[in-house]
Automatic annotation (TrEMBL):
<protein>
    <submittedName>
        <fullName>Aminopeptidase P family protein</fullName>
    </submittedName>
</protein>
<dbReference type="InterPro" id="IPR050659">
    <property type="entry name" value="Peptidase_M24B"/>
</dbReference>
<dbReference type="InterPro" id="IPR000587">
    <property type="entry name" value="Creatinase_N"/>
</dbReference>
<dbReference type="GO" id="GO:0046872">
    <property type="term" value="F:metal ion binding"/>
</dbReference>
<dbReference type="InterPro" id="IPR036005">
    <property type="entry name" value="Creatinase/aminopeptidase-like"/>
</dbReference>
<keyword id="KW-0479">Metal-binding</keyword>
<keyword id="KW-0645">Protease</keyword>
<dbReference type="Pfam" id="PF01321">
    <property type="entry name" value="Creatinase_N"/>
</dbReference>
<dbReference type="InterPro" id="IPR001131">
    <property type="entry name" value="Peptidase_M24B_aminopep-P_CS"/>
</dbReference>
<dbReference type="GO" id="GO:0008235">
    <property type="term" value="F:metalloexopeptidase activity"/>
</dbReference>
<dbReference type="GO" id="GO:0004177">
    <property type="term" value="F:aminopeptidase activity"/>
</dbReference>
<feature type="domain" description="Peptidase M24">
    <location>
        <begin position="141"/>
        <end position="344"/>
    </location>
</feature>
<keyword id="KW-0378">Hydrolase</keyword>
<comment type="similarity">
    <text>Belongs to the peptidase M24B family.</text>
</comment>
<dbReference type="InterPro" id="IPR001714">
    <property type="entry name" value="Pept_M24_MAP"/>
</dbReference>
<feature type="domain" description="Creatinase N-terminal">
    <location>
        <begin position="2"/>
        <end position="134"/>
    </location>
</feature>
<keyword id="KW-0031">Aminopeptidase</keyword>
Length: 361
């Protein structure tokens, strides 16, 4: 929080209203799912911050460690009146607000604008992205543990592969076993895609049943103590053909090459280009339609994006994915993804499930 408040002072921002549940958690340690109710943190240059949350969650916020004022609003309250009163008690006039422009909806923005006539509104996202981009040791330990659960989930799913079993049946088993270990939330909807379904990068699992000769793609992650993991593995059931093997080995070589290139000082674009060139040289360039990877932390997709146009210099302490893929319609899809940390002299992989092409019997 202090780093964010220091930025406000440097930028002559009198007040900020941070409203995404991810950034509220990052700044406060309080994780909430407010649904349609108002959630946020009011921050100031020197005054103590204020947490805004549903009244029913005040005790949860205290238990999470929030020590400052809480505006707890019921469903019949007017929270904006309560906010205006508390803000005005701290500072005389707000000339400039920082808000999450990508998150704060128009109705809520207009509430602020009407109450603080003449104030300018600037984006808080860029600063928060930079703050979240470099992880401290506590965050890294949590992310390592989240990755361990992801590895366990892949192992569970692989062991469930049997002829005639559906994608959804395997997902049910994976999530059941995770819940037995205390994991209550996945970082996104678990994906198990078999055969030609794997050729959809963001396919929807359903009742399709596994048959011999299928490649089965797993993409999943868990939320552990507020932080996300994200892993993808692709395995073969009973056997694979030459085309499937060619696609798989191309993706694997590209993934390994990109991981090998990771070190402080390398450009994000160079990592993407390293994998993309290998896939293009093998004749599959048109079948790799997405970025190489993305930042990982409180959100499963956060800054930076690893694209061929992003020339951001990678730094020690960044955690991100590398996940090249090839998706040939009506044939097969292959993606291999790891969660990685840039260290002082290279890279550490948090996810450790084997990447060699496995045949599941």
């Amino acid at each position: 929080m202090q780093s964010f408040m220091d930025w406000m002072k440097q930028s002559d921002i009198q007040a900020s209203f941070i409203t995404s549940k991810e950034n509220v958690f990052y700044l406060s340690g309080f994780r909430s799912e407010p649904h349609e109710r108002l959630l946020g943190i009011l921050a100031f240059q020197d005054e103590e911050p204020i947490l805004v949350c549903p009244a029913m969650e005040k005790e949860d916020a205290r238990n999470a460690g929030w020590e400052y004022e809480i505006i707890g609003h019921s469903d019949t309250d007017r929270p904006w009146d309560m906010i205006e009163k508390s803000v005005n008690a701290r500072i005389r006039k707000v000339h400039k607000w920082a808000i999450e422009k990508e998150h704060l909806n128009v109705e809520r923005y207009e509430e602020l604008k009407e109450r603080y006539t003449g104030a300018a509104f600037v984006s808080a996202e860029e600063k928060l992205r930079v703050l979240r981009m470099i992880k401290d040791e506590k965050e890294l330990e949590i992310l390592r543990k989240a990755a361990e659960f992801a590895d366990f989930a892949i192992q569970t799913g692989v062991e469930e592969i049997k002829e005639g079993k559906s994608e959804l049946e395997i997902i049910a088993k994976v999530e059941y076993e995770l819940k037995k270990k205390g994991i209550s939330e996945m970082s996104f909807s678990t994906m198990v895609l078999t055969g030609a379904n794997g050729a959809s990068p963001h396919g929807n699992p359903g009742s399709t049943k596994i048959k011999k000769g299928d490649l089965v793609l797993f993409d999943l992650g868990v939320v552990y103590q507020g932080y996300c993991s994200d892993i993808t593995r692709t395995v073969a059931y009973d056997h694979y053909n030459d085309k499937q093997e060619e696609i798989y080995q191309t993706v694997l070589k590209a993934q390994l090459a990109a991981v090998e290139a990771v070190k402080p000082g390398v450009k994000a674009s160079q990592l993407d280009k390293t994998a993309r060139k290998m896939i293009a040289d093998a004749g599959y360039g048109d079948y790799f339609p997405h970025r190489l990877g993305h930042g990982l932390g409180v959100s499963v997709h956060e800054y930076p994006a690893l694209t061929e146009t992003n020339d951001l210099t990678m730094e020690e302490g960044m955690v991100f994915t590398i996940e090249p893929g090839i998706y040939v319609p009506n044939v097969a899809g292959v993606r291999i993804e790891d969660d990685l940390l840039i260290t002082a002299d290279g890279v550490e992989s948090f996810t450790k499930f084997p990447k060699d092409l496995q045949i599941i019997k």
